[in-house]
Amino acid sequence: MGDKTLVVIDDDDLVGQLVVEAAQQVGFSASAVQDFEALKLVVDASEPDVMVLDLVLPNVDGIQVLRFLADRGCKAKIWLLSGFDPKVVQTAERLGVSLGLTIVGALNKPVSVTTLKDELRKHLRESGDFTVHDLEQAITDDHLFVHYQPKVRLAGDRTGDSGGDLLTLTVDDAPYEVMGFEALARWRNPHGAMVSPVKFIPVAEHSRMIEPLTQSVFRQVIEALAHWKSRGVRLNVAVNISPSTLADLDLPDRLAEKAYAVGVSPDQMILEITENSAVTEDPHFMDVLSRFRLKGFGLSLDDFGTGFSSLIQIYRMPFTELKIDRSFVSEMDQNDEAFTIVRSIIDLGHNLGMRVCAEGVETLSAANRLIELGCDYAQGFYFSRPVGLPDIMRRIGTASALDGTRRIS
């Protein structure tokens, strides 16, 4: 597979050498350039796996560099490096993402060598190489698996108003009812490395393997729901649906039949469609979404706030839930504009008769602010990272002797 390559672009030679030495110590083949022209030569010769980009360069700024990299179809993971105003850096991150670049974060100057090494080691663990054939074989042999991230109730009585045997999650001594989970596809490639979904999902899309991948995830999810049902626990699970599969007019029938075959009701499934993919005039899209709702499936508009949908499009489509994008939720504690957007989305969703879920909740403060705003549900690392099915099954199997609920800690 060869060494992973890293290039740092910084006009300060000392900073460049610091990054190079740190990268070499964790196993990268690293080099530094000090200006835009030198970077062009590097990218033209051989695209690096990782780039560390200073936003302030002589005769050019980082935004111009990001546009150049996007025009070249750059696939490298990019860290932005800056001692500039954090709000400007956040804007640059969002711009890079909107251009199709893989912006993985920002590093503050002066650079923390420890933080840099940790991030680079993470990249090496997660970025194993694979071929299209590897992915196709993994789907065919059913080697892709599902992790589940809990989705908890925030609004109203957090320990439930639905009655019955509840699954609860206790965080900082506070109980939250687990309403369900989001299913997230995972894959360990033939070399033993975990491959990020950010890498293999686009490959599946472009190689027409997204439908069998979706079918694999769906099958695993309904089997899990059936197993939980046998234990007296009724939950729902959200599954991401690729827009390319929504041209299939028979898809609602096939998925409903698969659910009924194992005793699972379609209303236990929420299909998540990103906001960008929902911006379409394709009549088949509306047809398929409407038929999903008629069969009982829930529909969630994912990553809401990052796309270009209009209110009339949201109104016309049969969504049951808005999901606030993590970029706003993660910044709402430090950024008044992000807080205002979150509040506005919650009000919009409720006024349109939809439930609202916030993703990317990482702090107690964010959770409490969402509760104050009346957000219905939330998910994120504060509550739990995505975990494998055996772990969930083990935890569900532990009943509380005090109140009869099942707990996940």
Short recap of the structure:
With 409 residues, the protein is α/β, with parallel strands linked by helices.
Question: How are the SSEs ordered, and which strands pair?
Answer:
Blueprint: E1 4-9, H1 13-25, E2 28-33, H2 36-45, E3 50-54, E4 56-57, E5 60-61, H3 62-71, E6 77-82, H4 86-98, E7 102-108, H5 113-126, H6 132-140, E8 145-153, E9 167-171, E10 174-188, E11 194-195, H7 197-206, H8 210-230, E12 236-240, H9 251-261, E13 269-274, H10 275-278, H11 283-294, E14 298-304, H12 311-316, E15 321-324, H13 326-329, H14 336-351, E16 355-359, H15 364-373, E17 377-379, E18 387-388, H16 389-396, E19 406-408
Parallel strand pairs: 1-2, 1-3, 3-6, 6-7, 9-19, 10-12, 12-13, 13-14, 14-15, 15-16, 16-17
Antiparallel strand pairs: 4-5, 8-10, 8-17, 8-18, 9-10, 10-11
Helix pairs in contact: 1-5
General description of the model:
It is a single chain. The chain has about 400 residues and is α/β, with parallel strands linked by helices. The chain folds into 2 domains: about 5-125, Response regulator (Rossmann fold, 3-Layer(aba) Sandwich), CATH 3.40.50.2300; about 130-409, EAL domain (TIM Barrel, Alpha-Beta Barrel). It is built from 16 helices and 19 strands. It has helices at about 15-25, 35-45, 60-70, 85-100, 115-125, 130-140, 195-205, 210-230, 250-260, 275-280, 285-295, 310-315, 325-330, 335-350, 365-375, 390-395, and strands at about 5-10, 30-35, 50-55, 55, 60, 75-80, 100-110, 145-155, 165-170, 175-190, 195, 235-240, 270-275, 300-305, 320-325, 355-360, 375-380, 385-390, 405-409. The strands form 3 sheets. An 8-stranded mixed beta barrel has the order 8-10-12-13-14-15-16-17. A 5-stranded parallel β-sheet has the order 2-1-3-6-7, sandwiched between helices. A two-stranded antiparallel sheet has the order 4-5. α1 crosses α5 (about 115-125). The longest helix has 21 residues, at about 210-230. The model is unreliable at about 160-165 and about 395-409 (pLDDT under 50).
